[in-house]
Amino acid sequence: MKLIHLTDLHLVPPEATLFGFDPAERLRKTVERINRDHADAELCVVTGDLTDEGDVASYGLLREVLKDMRVSTRLLLGNHDSRENFILAFPDEQRDENGFVQSVYESSVGRFIFLDTLVQGHGHGALDGGRLEWLLARLAEKPEAPAYVFAHHPLQPIGLPHFEPWNTANWRHIMRSIVAAGNVRHIFHGHVHVDVGGTWHGVPFSASRGVAHQIIPHFMRRDADFVEDAPAFDVALIENDGFLLHRLEVSDRPVVAVSAAG
Ligand SMILES: [Fe+2]
To answer: How remote is the CA of residue 145 from the centroid of ligand 1, in Å?
Structure first.
């Protein structure tokens, strides 16, 4: 099963720019690359910060760009998003019984569980208001099924001081609950704009530097330098007995030679 993981699009209204670049143009190039090389993917998941300021015009632009995407796509919310405006633009996106943009997709290799960690007006994430209980109920109702969790905010620390104030509230309790459930095979997240992966008590996680701007990871400093690298996305190849993650960047590097078929 092939899965595409995109994150942190940070779209701005048409004609506007972000830090001097056009986030929609970066997304268009990324969609073109996915259509060219990965149209066979079962699903594409975008883990939040769909827009930079959560405005209606930016969600409209997102709708327009995604019309060209040939892979079925799920959208999650990040701290830069507006739940209200997102729902206006994407009224058909599934929500849980409390109105959070949380849902389940039954894939060919297990359950994909999509979380809404947005705390409107704040940079950090949370799973309060019934969101954690919803997650744990989804994990418990099919305990034998492998589960893959998707969220904007990391549910575990990533070792960079800059992000400590912007983590998920009560992350340790959340992660202990996930570990106790015993069936989560991987957590995909966004938010951090750096390439990072690891495990927490045996549960693997990953994030890529994303489609919009990137951050130079500083392991001592609390401030952060934003840079404009090539957009990046992940391709996960998930089987019942294994998991592979490829990180790809959308660059214009010229092909310098073509190797014979191996
Ligand atoms: Fe972001």
So the answer is: 31
